[in-house]
Amino acid sequence: MPGHRVGNSKPRIIVIGAGIGGLTAGALLAHRGYSVLILDQALVPGGCASTFQRKGFTFDVGATQVAGLEAGGIHHRIFTELEIDLPQATPCDPACAVYLPGEQTPINVWRDPEKWKQERQRQFPFSEPFWQLMAALFKASWEFQGRDPVLPPRNVWDLVQLTKALRPSTFITVPYTLFTVGDALRAYKLGNDHRLKTFLDLQLKLYSQVDTEETALLYAATALSVSQLPQGLYHLQGSMQVLSDRLLEALEKKGGTLLMRHTVEHIEVEKGKVSGVVIRNQKTGEVWTEAADHVVANVTAQNLVQLLGNKAPHGYKRRVEKLPPASGAFVIYLGVDESAIPSRCPPHLQFMYNAKGPIGNNNSLFVSVSHPGDGRAPEGKATIIASSFVDTKQWWVSEDYEGLKQQYTQDAVSRLSKFFYLKPETIIHVEAATPRTFARYTARDQGIVGGIGQRISTFGPFGFANRTPINNLWLVGDSTHPGEGTAGVSYSALTAVKQIEAQKVARYGIT
Ligand SMILES: Cc1cc2nc3c(=O)[nH]c(=O)nc-3n(C[C@H](O)[C@H](O)[C@H](O)COP(=O)(O)OP(=O)(O)OC[C@H]3O[C@@H](n4cnc5c(N)ncnc54)[C@H](O)[C@@H]3O)c2cc1C
């Protein structure tokens, strides 16, 4: 017998996946009166924003810093609606300390806008007009996003929401819709400023998966400005898991259910409309079909097509197949003695090295360091988590996977040793995750992370919609607008919830 049956008096929603996108959608829908069942194949909820424990250390699996906690920010808005407490957090200041190859002092991305302005003017003379353009585009885009547009629109209701979010100020962004960051740099005669370009490449890749030449300018304006007040990035007290825990609390308070270790194997479609899902209970092996009025898929676009099988619409499938290859991540998790950490170490650093090795010369390590009392390490100890982008393919074809993982681990430790005091006597725990690890624990196709990339062809108006071509099947998460990050996927979830509600109102006249 199935472990759960959703009630039949309220519209029934099944959410596939308890990442931040799925939990947010599920909690909001339960709060708005739907009967919600969330299924996740993993052991703990949170997906790329979950955690694991080793030897008294708590490691954040992927996401380590959070945007959208400020008043009016997306997590703040959603937690307020759900009537749950926002997690305790400390602002990241600097948001990131960026070390360019061969340089000993970092470029500090300060939280205070004036301090950041002085820093960038010192670091990148003559670039201020470019930053002013970014600030103007950010202001217009941020206000627009705050009015909950539906992007890309797929029907009249979506178009009306999009139109309602427009203001005369939004139109300043329109001429730049097809600009990349590289185009803007050239327009300001900064195309040959190698140092600025390297800095931007490093920072943009973290948010958009691609570099200055490919990142859509309008997306970059937000990514590069969100770390300053009145917005800002935060380090959560305890661990990243607290976000999922609070959302789960809200879901259950309103009668919703989460079943872990339950894999959705197939999405059922009848006459162009979703009808339910096929579920496998991993513990018992039992397989059954659960009917639903709506299915919200918190998976990658690639996984969605696989779950639909031969019911995947041809054009949609082709579009997914034609996407440029998505990135994977190699992540190293170190539990260390606090003597390994230099004094006054910022919480987030980014290093690019002139170094040979498996990680590559043109790649960076993004590093998050715990601080005393933040709940991640026992007293006198600390965690260091470092991630770099990798091509997923080599991890699947390698005949010596363990050997490759070992090489990457050694290379990462050797690179990190240039900044941290990493010796056998200071390293207490070492563990690494590869695309194969992410595929196993988050079920993401090939272990890809971070969404479809914010190129011109895939960002905002040109990206994947929450509304899929199958009626009542919704896609949420980092494959959709506005892209990766816990804040991004929360916007995506909120949009899908509003679309589902609008359909209920239209059909049943319920308000
Ligand atoms: C190394 C790394 C560092 C990052 N750093 C940051 C950061 O500092 N700040 C930030 O905001 N973001 C960061 N991100 C990005 C962020 O973590 C993700 O964009 C976001 O968490 C994705 O959330 P999601 O809800 O879209 O999906 P996911 O987190 O992928 O969750 C999907 C869930 O669905 C489940 N699932 C999938 N398929 C099925 C199925 N068929 N049946 C049942 N369950 C299924 C999975 O088990 C998983 O729990 C980082 C990501 C990585 C990998």
For this entry, give a set of tags.
FAD/NAD-bd_sf, CrtISO-like, 511 residues, oxidoreductase activity, Amino_oxidase, disordered N terminus, binds flavin-adenine dinucleotide, FAD/NAD(P)-binding domain, alpha/beta, membrane
Q: Using the alpha-carbon principal axes, give the shape.
A: globular
Q: What share of the residues lie within helices?
A: 25-40%
- Small molecules bound in the structure, each named once: flavin-adenine dinucleotide
Q: Any idea of the CATH topology of the largest domain?
A: FAD/NAD(P)-binding domain
How large a portion of the residues is in β-strands, by DSSP E? 15-25%
What CATH architecture of the largest domain would you give? 3-Layer(bba) Sandwich
CATH superfamily of the largest domain: FAD/NAD(P)-binding domain
Radius of gyration: 22 Å
The level 1 CATH classification of the largest domain is: Alpha Beta
How would you sum up the major sheet? 7 strands, mixed
Number of individual domains: 3
- Largest sheet: spatial strand order: 8-7-16-17-18-15-19
Output the number of helix runs. Answer: 15
**Count of strand segments:** 20
What is the SS-derived class? alpha/beta
- State the end-to-end CA separation: 36 Å
Please mark out the parts with pLDDT under 50 across 5 or more consecutive residues, or reply none: 3-7
Mean pLDDT: 95
Protein name: C-3',4' desaturase CrtD
InterPro entries: Amino_oxidase, CrtISO-like, FAD/NAD-bd_sf, Myxoxanthophyll_desat_CrtD
GO molecular function, one term: oxidoreductase activity
Keywords: Membrane, Transmembrane, Transmembrane helix
